Amino acid sequence: MRRFHRPRPLSTRPSVSVVIPCYNYGRYLPQAVAGALDQSGVDVDVLIVDDASTDDSADIARSLAAADPRVQVLVHEQNAGHIRTYNDGLALARGDYVTLVSADDVLMPDALTRAAALMEHHRSVGLVYGYARSFTDELPTGPTRTRSWSVWAGRDWLATAARQGRCFLASPEAVMRREALEQTDGYDPRLPHSADFDMWLRTAVHWDVGRVDGPIQAAYRVHAANMHLTEYSGWLTDLRERRRTFDILFDERAPEVAEVQALKPYAMRALATEAMRRGREVAHGDSATVIDHLRFAAETHLAIRHTRAWSRAWAEAVEGRAPEPGPWARATGKVRHHLRWRFERRYGT
Predict the structure, then answer these.
(1) pLDDT digits over 242-295, tens only?
(2) 230 falls within a domain
(3) Max alpha carbon distance in the chain (Å)?
(4) What is the pLDDT of residue 232?
């Protein structure tokens, strides 16, 4: 159950640790560090973890540290990969609250102030997020006033994520209470695509979840080198990784929590249903692509094979006549996506 609360100012001065992992993103580091430090009412420390970059990232990081004592640098001698880089940085975090912001993303002014205030006033909340706006070159602008605070019982928020089969966070807007972070074992190397989603889900098993409603909390940079556009691109890859994340949640994170276990069929059905829809959207009449998505749907939620929609789509694809969405289907898809975006922008789920 979500409860709305009136925002309240900080009455203390908490500390926040910002971990900035970096690999060949030296050109973005000054903006990322500046955004992290542009926070009032909280004591911020920044740790840049350079994963043996082959560009000038380490030199830029050291120059930023030399210019501001709040900035520290850890440089890997050998490339360790992004999960190890995240965990190395988080292991050194000592703030009351902790956030991990990729070097190409940017925290908005006072985003940490707003997140910390919510958790200072709601001690049961272990994770706070907000709206993360995508951008390419110019930082986004928008309202700065906090309209409200949303607070969910953690397992209610988890149930919503499971029933929709997806994550509501982009990542740079997420701030965790350090005690909640320490209850996890860090980012799971088995989940290179969705370790952050796994972190949010298992946190919600034990902690409440909050959201800062209204302002842009972080800016997520979209560019050709984004990991989700390179190593882990494609809807089917994303669906498979989400399924694995939920499998680990149900099988390992909370195997004895009946309330969590009851969500498994809903999560699998949501993923299967989305696979059917995505297959048609991205196939553009290619039957092999449709079949791949339909097979994933059937593997994920066996009962979907008995639905009329799955049977019809399978028959059309096998016969090589997978339909390409017409103008009406494309238009309604855009409207559905826009309405979904507006709802999630306002309410966070």
Answers:
(1) 999 999 999 999 999 999 999 999 999 999 999 999 988 887 778 899 999 999
(2) no
(3) 67
(4) 47
> Is residue 268 classed exposed, middle or buried when 0-12, 13-18 and 19+ CB atoms within 10 A define those classes?
buried
Amino acid identity, position 191: L
Which residues are within 8 A (CB) of 245 and not within 5 positions of it... i.e. 6 or more apart? 191, 194, 197, 198, 201
pTM value is 0.92
Query: Does 43 share its domain with 72?
Result: yes
Window from 41-45, 112-116, 138-142, 242-246 with minimum mean pLDDT = 138-142
Instruction: Kindly report, residue by residue over 152-161, the tens digit of the pLDDT.
Output: 999 999 999 9
Three-class SS state of 208: strand
Residues 152 and 283 in one domain: no
CB burial of 200-228 (b: ≥16 within 10 Å; e: otherwise) equals bbbbbbbbbbbbbbbbbbbbbbeeeeeee
Residue range(s) defining the domain that contains residue 321: 235-347
DSSP state of 108: P
Same domain, 255 and 136: no
The tally of CA atoms less than 13 A away on the side-chain side of residue 206 is 15
| Helix-, strand-, coil-residue percentages of the chain, each rounded to 5 | 50, 20, 35
Contact call for residues 291 and 321 (beta carbons, < 8 A): no
Whichever domain contains 86, its CATH number is 3.90.550.10
- Shared-domain flag, residues 124 and 271: no
**Do 13 and 141 share a structural domain?**
yes
Contacts of 102 (CB under 8 A, 6+ apart): 20, 21, 22, 25, 32, 171, 172
Q: How far is CA 343 from the centre of its chain?
A: 17
Q: Are residues 146 and 285 in the same domain?
A: no
Beta bridge partners of 75: 50
Calculate Rg over the CA atoms of the chain: 21
If residue 75 lies in a helix (H) or strand (E), which one and from where to where? Answer: strand 71-75
Cα(251)–Cα(68) distance, rounded to whole angstroms? 45
Flag whether 191 is in a domain.
Answer: no
**Tally of domains within the chain:** 2
Q: Which two tokens stand for residue 68?
A: 């501001």
